[in-house]
Each structure stands twice: as structure tokens, then as C-alpha cells.
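[User]
If only I could read C-alpha cells as easily as an amino acid sequence. I have put the entry right below:
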Amino acid sequence: MIHALTRLPGPLDRAELTHIDRVPVDMARALAQHAAYRAALTRAGASVTVLPALPDHPDCCFVEDTAVMLPELTIVTRPGAASRRGEIAAIVPHLPGDRPQLVITAPGTIDGGDVMVVGRDIFIGLTRRTNAEAVAQVAAGVAAHGYRVTAVPLAKALHLKTAVSALADDLVLVNTDWLDPAIFGRRHIASAPGEPFAGNSLTVGNTVFHATGEQTLARIAAAGFAVEFLDISEFAKAEAGLTCLSLIY
């Protein structure tokens, strides 16, 4: 069974921003887009849990950053933005209880959006939100389960999965202007020129969801995937992609 853990959006106008300018967020439209997102995950075969918003945490709907779900264990993160660390206590009671937890501790910082799991490889972006100490903690914690951990320096995007996402265990979607696809040691589809944020996609069941870039969407479809466009434009104003809005396990 595929599970998707989501949380309703808080005051997105106060969300943390790093690489884009702040513009007003239409909260009524954001709520409608979030409802459409949850409905799409349900159609794709996921059992969706919806948690309430956390009014004191503007980024609370970006639950991906709070944990990394592996079959063998859950990695509980320590977000790089201090304002987000209160989200951790709120998510832990809702994480699956059928596996142990690896809890990242100071001075390590890591956002789940910087962690891409592809088969037995775990790629972790070294960004403003994620540091080498956290990468070392993850590597030590997953070694017994046969995972390989690779650190990926990234300066041009907030999170690693802004620039690259897994379409299958042997295939990634990547913005080749920001990252060398050879890093990932597998086949790749390049996002189209002029669509810099199109490297983020979300695969649920047999469906690949995509939120930005018509040419990139067409490239994914041409590779044989069932592709569905999802509009999350209000969340993009808070520097988010599709993967940010759920924890899939």
C-alpha cells in the first residue's frame, strides 16, 4: 500500500525564501491546489493522510523536509532553517511505527528535499539547508542496510530535488544546467532549456506528476510514462516543488 502524508498550508506569505523574490500568495487558491494535489495522489493509488496546518510555521505544508522514508528506517531530519525545527515534533507522531528512526542531531542540518533515494543510492545535496555533518550521520545510519550515500554540492537551487528527481530506479530527470547527470550513474532525461524548475517530479504508483514546463512534460511522456500536470503555482511562490508537499512511503 502506498501512503502519502500531507499537511494543510500555513501562512505561506511568511515562508522561508532563498533564491526567489517574495510575491503575494493567494491562500484560497493555494488551498484549492492542495486539495487537487491530494485528490491526484488518491487517484494514483495512495492512501492520503491530511494533517492540520501549523499557524506558527509558515512552511509546515512542505512535509518532505521533515523526514526521509526508507523501507528499513525513517530518517528524522533537522531542518537547515531554524524557523522550521518546530515542525519536527509535530510530524514525528504521524510517522510510520513499523520501522526504527534515525534522528539527525546538531551540528548536522538536513532538509528532506535535499535527499533523493534511487534504488540503493541516496544522493544528498550540500546546500544552504544541508551540511556535511548530516550527510555523515545518514551514511553511518544506513550503511548496515546496504545503501550508498553520495554528497552532491549544489549552489543554484534551494534543494537537490529542485534540480533532479527519480523517475525510476535506473532513470532520473535532471536540470543539466545545474547538475552533471553523470553524478547519478544512471540514465537521465534532461529538463528542457528555459524550464529551470522542471527537474522536480513526483512518481506515485504508475503516474509521474509534473508541475512546470510543457516541453519537459512532453519529454517524460515520450519516455513512456503516464504523466499528469498538477498546478501548484501558489506553492512555487514559496520555493516549492511537487515532492515538497508529501511524504510518500
Remarks:
- The mean pLDDT is 96.
- The radius of gyration is 17 Å.
- DSSP finds six helices and 15 strands in the chain.
- Helices lie at 27-43, 86-91, 132-142, 160-163, 214-222, 233-236.
